[in-house]
Design goal:
Blueprint lengths: L6 H8 L1 H8 L2 H8 L4 H25 L16 H11 L12 H16 L2 H16 L1 H12 L18 H14 L4 H32 L1
Helix pairs in contact: 2-10, 4-5, 4-6, 4-7, 4-10, 6-10, 7-10
């Protein structure tokens, strides 16, 4: 009898190189190595606002969908924390002072398209890519940004999940939900392809941020 690879395992293995490529993109690598500036960090937080505004609006739209619903929880909600971070980092007029770079615009358009079409698998793909990353490497990133830019606990609320006491256990349950999702082989492939697209958006976003920084120099 042939063992069937759990979907969450196949997803992780198939996206491993894309995930690594996104993490090591020049702009993010510079930030992590201490070669970035506070303005670089602020620029990244600003792009997060556009992305999570779209993603969490999609969650609101799809919360009644039987496939999407198990993944949606207020424990993951990031938008209020991002807005508080931006108010601290930029000022109360932050909404007037941020702008989506081209990749972020395409990223948001894709999430909106998925939500409007009601494609639960596509939503889960983006949900997985963002939030499980936030609960993994994101925790490390928050600590580094706090230390580098002497932020203390301010301006890094995005990386703090107060309602999730055990991120590892939470991620294990999340992967069990991925494995329990009732999609067939064709849909599973579509979801994996969408995860790969999400990672590509992340990588391209870092390129855009690096280009914007170079243009402003």
């Amino acid at each position: 009898m042939t063992d069937v690879t759990p979907f969450s395992t196949a997803l992780r293995e198939r996206s491993r190189s894309a995930h690594s490529g996104s993490e090591h993109a020049g702009f993010m690598a510079d930030l992590m190595r201490g070669n970035g500036t506070r303005d670089d960090y602020v620029a990244l937080v600003a792009q997060h606002w556009f992305i999570y505004a779209a993603l969490e609006a999609a969650a609101d739209r799809l919360q009644g969908d039987p496939i999407a619903a198990p993944f949606i929880t207020s424990k993951l909600t990031r938008l209020p924390a991002i807005e508080a971070d931006l108010a601290y980092l930029i000022g109360d007029d932050w909404r007037d002072r941020i702008e989506a770079v081209p990749t972020t615009q395409r990223y948001v358009e894709r999430i909106n398209e998925i939500a409007e079409s009601g494609w639960a698998g596509g939503f889960v793909a983006h949900h997985y890519t963002r939030y499980l990353g936030d609960l993994s490497g994101g925790q490390f990133i928050g600590k580094i940004m706090s230390r580098q830019f002497e932020l203390g606990s301010n301006g890094i609320g995005f990386y703090v999940f107060d309602e999730i006491a055990d991120p590892t256990a939470f991620k294990e349950v999340y992967r069990e939900q991925l494995d329990a999702a009732p999609w067939d082989d064709l849909e599973a492939e579509r979801v994996i392809d969408e995860v790969l697209l999400a990672y590509q958006f992340n990588t391209d976003l870092f390129v855009d941020l690096a280009d914007a920084k170079a243009a402003a120099a």
